[in-house]
Amino acid sequence: MTFCISRKSWRVAFSALVVLSACTSTPTVVRNTDTEVAVRYDGIVNSLDDARQMAEKTCAARNKTARLRRVSDQGLGQHYGYFECVSATGLN
Fold first, then answer.
1. 81 near 71, Cβ under 8 Å?
2. Which domain holds residue 57?
3. Pair 55, 45: CB distance under 8 Å
4. 17, 34 contact by CB (below 8 A)
5. Contacts with 9 (C-beta within 8 Å, 6 or more apart), sequence order
6. Rounded Cα distance, 70 and 74, in Å
7. Which of 8, 50, 53, 76 can bridge 46 by disulfide, Cβ–Cβ 3.0-4.6 Å?
């Protein structure tokens, strides 16, 4: 008896892998301006602390620090942290 997987089954399996990999991706900067940074994280493997580290690195490029403004949870694998980039000296 031979077991054969159709092309449609391979497409479904590949699509499932793509979706699962999107849920476990590293935090990603989705908005980056002079005053704010928005970071998407999955909430499963990566947490708000991981998003905060990403925001700190992004704001540090402008000699600023990241301050959490709000969090938006939009379902499984869709969490967003919104950070303000503020000057460490308070002058900018």
1. yes
2. 26-87
3. no
4. no
5. none
6. 13
7. 50
